[in-house]
């Protein structure tokens, strides 16, 4: 089953990768989720693993709860065999961005609300959650969100 899911994800990614050349991609919009934080502002660290399982793909933990105004350092490790990313946003915004990625081919995210990692790679993302609500973290690489790489962020 894992092989079938990985093969489908690779086929989907390959089909869109050649539709257009690599594209540096940045967001100019304001973030209802919050804004980039700095290391000096970090209130706590949350470790997140990007994983591939027999049932699909995902993040561990699969859901997050933070406090409004809290600055989080996400220590993210890709434990899978494929490239993965984590993008913070609203569900609607992430879905729209995912569709844009599928049409444009490969994108090199250079956004403070996103982190792309190769297999075995680790990185960090520092974010201040300035608004209460329910938001989302997701992998927007074509096929990955559909395979389960998404989860809610509850900001109390």
Automatic annotation (TrEMBL):
Pfam family of the protein (one): Copper-bind
Q: Gene3D superfamilies, per this entry?
A: Cupredoxins - blue copper proteins
Q: Which GO terms describe its molecular function?
A: copper ion binding; electron transfer activity
The Blue (type 1) copper domain is annotated at 52-156
- UniProt entry tagged with the keyword Lipoprotein: no
Instruction: Indicate the secretion signal residues.
Output: 1-19
Any idea which UniProt keywords this protein has?
A: Copper, Metal-binding, Signal
**Protein name as it appears in the record:** Cupredoxin family protein
Q: Which organism is it from?
A: Pseudoroseicyclus tamaricis
């Amino acid at each position: 089953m894992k092989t079938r899911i990985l093969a489908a994800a690779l086929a989907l990614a390959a089909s869109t990768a050649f539709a257009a050349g690599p594209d540096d991609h940045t967001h100019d919009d304001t973030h209802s989720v919050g804004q980039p934080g700095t290391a000096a502002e970090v209130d706590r660290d949350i470790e997140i693993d990007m994983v591939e399982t027999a049932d699909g793909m995902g993040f561990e933990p699969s859901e997050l709860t933070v406090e409004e105004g809290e600055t989080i350092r996400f220590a993210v490790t890709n434990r899978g065999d494929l490239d993965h990313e984590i993008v913070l946003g609203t569900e609607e915004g992430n879905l729209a961005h995912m569709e844009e990625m599928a049409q444009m081919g490969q994108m090199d995210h250079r956004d403070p609300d996103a982190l792309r990692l190769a297999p075995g790679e680790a990185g960090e993302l520092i974010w201040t959650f300035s608004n209460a609500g329910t938001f989302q973290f997701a992998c927007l690489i074509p096929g990955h969100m559909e395979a389960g790489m998404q989860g809610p962020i509850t900001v109390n």
